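Reminder to self: tokens first, then the designed residues, so the page reads top to bottom the way the pipeline ran.
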């Protein structure tokens, strides 16, 4: 915008023209913001607020009368308050480089004054005290011209090669050198001890290494010896294992052969013997059964023959009655009784014959002795006299039956 001016952050804008300043200042101070400046009637100038340095190199005489060359650096700037800006603007606005020159001169004067009240030993050993006293002595003068000092550094102090500072440092140097030599000697001793200790440790390590190597060699030799013997030992063990396996195989083959013999010879022989025994028993039973069957057949045949002869026997008995003198008292009933008696007599004869035949069949062989306790077979009953024809009636031979 036309007429609007803004200062930089490290600047102070001084607007002159009109009655703008405070406390009778000839200009208005503007910092940190802009303002409208009417053209042609107002004038604007800028005063730097940045840090500035000033160097001082001054020959100073100490309280002891010893001349010293002192070099120092001062860091300063225009104060931030409006009063400092006004004071600095009135003095340095036209030539701002004069701030460094004037500041150096002010500090040079204070530096000579303060060093003149101190000894060389104090100046050398207490540089911070020297800097503080110089700052305190120049603070009032610097405030009057609107400047503030941030720091003062004493860079060097030189005695113009007269050797005072060196002589002053000689005892300390000697002490330091002595301490350094002692420290070096101690270091050498410690180094020698450490070296000896290292050599002893190396010798001990070598000894232990030799022992361990000997142990390793003994173990290796033992392992090699065992490995050399392992082959024959393994061969012997393998041979023993083979022999044991062969023995087991022979034992198993023997057991197998024994089982085969049992299965092929003994069991068949036992089976054959059992078969022969069973066959013998069966044959004996067969013979017995055949004998029984034959005896039964003979008896059946005999019974059949006797039964077939029964009518003949009855007829013969009845024929014997033909010429007999028989008196029948009870008529037809008496005749029936006579006939029944004849039949009963025939049956008795038949039974007696059967028993006789059965005894003959069951008789023992001729060479066998008869059992003393076995009862003798009863003789077969005699046929009636009439059955063999002897009872047939003739002259004077008739029998009388009374019924």
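Designed residues (403 positions):
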């Amino acid at each position: 915008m036309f007429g609007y001016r803004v200062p930089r952050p490290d600047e102070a804008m001084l607007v002159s023209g009109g009655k703008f300043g405070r406390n009778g200042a000839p200009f208005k101070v503007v910092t940190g913001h802009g303002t409208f400046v009417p053209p042609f009637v107002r004038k604007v100038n800028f005063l730097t607020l940045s840090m500035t340095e000033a160097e001082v190199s001054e020959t100073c005489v100490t309280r002891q009368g010893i001349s010293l060359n002192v070099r120092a650096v001062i860091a300063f700037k225009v104060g931030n308050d409006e009063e400092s800006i006004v004071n600095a603007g009135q003095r340095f606005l036209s030539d701002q480089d004069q701030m460094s020159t004037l500041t150096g001169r002010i500090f040079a004067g204070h530096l000579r004054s303060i060093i003149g009240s101190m000894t060389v030993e104090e100046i050398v050993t207490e540089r911070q005290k020297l800097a503080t006293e110089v700052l305190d002595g120049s603070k009032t003068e610097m405030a009057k011209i609107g400047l503030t000092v941030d720091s003062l550094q004493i860079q060097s102090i030189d005695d113009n090669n007269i050797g005072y500072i060196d002589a002053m440092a000689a005892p300390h140097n000697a002490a330091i050198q002595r301490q350094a030599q002692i420290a070096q000697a101690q270091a050498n001793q410690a180094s020698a001890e450490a070296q000896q200790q290292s050599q002893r440790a190396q010798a001990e390590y070598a000894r232990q290494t030799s022992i361990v190597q000997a142990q390793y060699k003994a173990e290796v030799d033992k392992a090699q010896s065992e490995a050399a013997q392992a082959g024959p030992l393994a061969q012997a063990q393998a041979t023993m294992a083979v022999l044991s396996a062969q023995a087991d195989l022979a034992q198993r083959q023997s057991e197998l052969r024994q089982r085969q013999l049992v299965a092929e010879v003994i069991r068949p022989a036992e089976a054959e013997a059992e078969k022969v025994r069973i066959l013998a028993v069966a044959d004996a039973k067969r013979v017995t059964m055949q004998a029984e069957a034959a005896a039964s057949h003979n008896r059946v045949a005999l019974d059949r023959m006797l039964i077939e002869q029964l009518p003949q026997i009855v007829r013969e008995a009845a024929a014997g009655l033909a010429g007999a003198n028989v008196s029948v008292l009870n008529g037809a009933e008496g005749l029936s009784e006579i006939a029944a008696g004849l039949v009963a007599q025939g049956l008795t004869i038949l039974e007696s014959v059967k028993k006789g035949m059965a005894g003959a069949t069951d008789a023992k062989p001729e060479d066998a002795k008869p059992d003393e306790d076995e009862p003798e077979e009863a003789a077969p009953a005699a046929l009636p006299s009439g059955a063999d024809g002897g009872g047939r009636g003739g002259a004077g031979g008739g029998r009388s039956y009374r019924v």
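DSSP finds six helices and ten strands in the chain.
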